[in-house]
Design goal:
Elements lengths: L12 E7 L4 E11 L4 E5 L2 E2 L2 E2 L7 E8 L3 E14 L3 E7 L4 E2 L8 E2 L3 E8 L6 E12 L3 E6 L8 E8 L2 E14 L7 E9 L2 H20 L4
Antiparallel strand pairs: 1-2, 1-6, 2-3, 3-8, 4-5, 6-7, 7-8, 7-9, 10-12, 11-12, 11-14, 12-13, 13-16, 14-15, 15-16
């Protein structure tokens, strides 16, 4: 089968991003059929077993993952909807496909054990400080990390952790430091990923979307 330019195939899982003046809500969906290069039939969004109304002419964003390449997105218009045995939308692509900007990803609150390594430079020789930390939250572009070491903004750290049995290794930059009053830790570090493979980033993103879907189905977000 020839590869499509957009990287989308029938049966692929996608995300519908419904945009309002106050927020964006993300719903899982699937490509049901491809009418032509710019028109698709997709499953309509459902939340808490309730259909989310989508109106003809409504503008949405479609986000999807291309294996070994990353996550992409494009703007689309709803041009038809059907309520038969299943909820179906016909959408039309109205923008170029762009690599999804990581800053737009939802920052998911979750505690994940992390091994943090920091090279402390001294006059004698460099010393590697290793600390067991935990995340406060995580996104595709960084995380907040609980730590007891007093870092400076600009410090470069290496972190190792697991996402559903997938070992992840990243290099990050400390961009924000806050004192916290927790039982185990003194500081909350805002860390931006500055060296991460697209494969590892995609693992993180898919994990976040999976957890989000579970919370949406339970009516918790």
């Amino acid at each position: 089968m020839n590869k499509r330019k957009d990287g989308i195939n029938i049966g692929d899982r996608i995300e519908i991003i419904k945009i309002t003046t106050k927020s964006e809500r993300t719903y899982p969906s699937q490509i049901l059929d491809i009418i032509n290069e710019g028109n698709y039939l997709i499953s309509g969004p459902i939340w808490q077993n309730q259909i989310i109304p989508m109106h003809k002419g409504e503008k949405i964003k479609i986000s999807y993952v291309v294996k070994n390449k990353g996550r992409y997105a494009f703007d689309a218009l709803v041009i038809r909807r059907e309520y038969k045995n299943i909820y179906i939308l016909e959408i039309q692509k109205i923008s170029n496909i762009k690599k999804y900007q990581m800053r737009r990803y939802y920052r998911f609150n979750i505690s994940i054990p992390v091994i943090k390594e920091f090279v402390l430079k001294t006059k004698a020789e460099d010393e590697i400080l290793i600390e067991e930390c935990k995340t406060k939250d995580i996104s595709g572009s960084g995380f907040r990390l609980y730590s007891n070491y007093k870092h400076d903004v600009g410090d470069i750290v290496r972190c190792k952790f697991n996402i559903e049995e997938n070992p992840i290794g990243i290099k990050g930059k400390v961009v924000r430091i806050e004192k916290v009053d927790t039982f185990d830790y003194k500081y909350s570090l805002g860390i931006d990923f500055i060296d991460i493979s697209e494969q590892n980033r995609d693992i993180i993103i898919k994990f976040i979307f999976k957890k989000e879907r579970i919370l949406i189905e339970k009516g918790l977000i």
